[in-house]
Write a structure and sequence with these properties.
- It contains three helices and nine strands, in the order ααβββββββββα.
- It has helices at about 1-25, 30-75, 225, and strands spanning about 80-85, 100-105, 115-120, 125-130, 160-165, 175-180, 185-200, 210-215, 220.
- The model has no long low-confidence stretch (mean pLDDT about 80).
- About 30% of the residues lie in helices and about 30% in strands.
- The chain is of the alpha+beta class.
- It has two domains: about 1-75; about 80-225, no CATH class.
- A hairpin with a 5-residue loop joins β3 (about 115-120) and β4.
- The strands form two sheets. Strands 3, 4, 6, 7, 8 and 9 form a six-stranded antiparallel sheet that branches. Strands 1-2-5 form a three-stranded antiparallel sheet, with no helix packed on it.
- Keywords: Membrane, Transmembrane, Transmembrane helix.
């Protein structure tokens, strides 16, 4: 970007020099007028060069500031743990009207100021749920999902979202998109979580269900891109 501005500045200055040379060369007014014209040309070129340098420096400073904010945000990214309840390997045994939940826990010491979950049900309807704030865990090293911490008021390190009833959710493949903001910088992350289940038994009388939970690498996004 800096090189591009320098090239354009040189082109403009060169064009100005040629123009002024033609004007001065064809002028019939004497030496003092020519000297004044050259002085004006040099002043204009200096102003143009200073403006181009200032603009380039400002752009470079903004880019460096953005990189610094993203680096700080990455170093303090909340570690959110998601668990679908009941587990996928139990879904085949649920009653049609039983509710399926998504448990979200903050297992880091850093606050997630805003969280959103998006998912689709089997009827094709999109859904979303908002969580205003997931506080950081004062003891994130314990690593036990069941040990949630509650504070006075509504603040907590965990939250629960109702995804719907079992009959309206695929019992073998469910996906959610998780968006969460950083307490630093002007952005956050998007993760795609997928829960799968499959039967490893060929005996219909004795099914053996297995399940897995996979996560795509977090993607950095601006707050406007996330719809926050």
């Amino acid at each position: 970007m800096k090189l591009s501005w320098l090239v354009w500045a040189l082109v403009v200055v060169f064009g100005s020099v040629v123009t002024w040379m033609l004007i001065v060369h064809n002028s019939s007014n004497g030496l003092s007028v020519r000297i004044g014209s050259w002085a004006q040309l040099l002043a204009a070129a200096g102003t143009l060069g200073a403006a181009a340098l200032a603009l380039s420096t400002a752009k470079e400073n903004r880019a460096q500031s953005q990189k610094a904010n993203e680096a700080l945000a990455a170093a303090t990214r909340p570690q959110l743990s998601l668990q679908m309840l009941p587990m996928m390997k139990q879904r085949a045994y649920l009653q049609p009207n039983e509710t399926v939940y998504l448990s979200i826990s903050n297992l880091s010491a850093f606050v997630a100021p805003r969280v959103r979950v998006n998912w689709n049900t089997q009827d094709g309807m999109p859904h979303e749920a908002w969580i205003d704030r997931l506080l950081g865990d004062p003891n994130p090293e314990k690593g036990l999902i069941g040990e949630h911490v509650s504070y006075s008021g509504d603040a907590s390190t965990s939250a629960t979202v109702q995804l719907g009833v079992a009959s309206n959710l695929d019992e073998q493949d469910n996906r959610v998109r998780l968006y969460y903001a950083s307490q630093f910088g002007n952005g956050g992350w998007m993760e795609v979580h997928r829960w799968e289940a499959w039967n490893t038994s060929s005996d219909p009388e004795h099914p053996a269900w297995q399940h897995r939970h996979t996560i795509e690498a977090p993607k950095w996004m601006t707050l406007s891109e996330m719809g926050f």
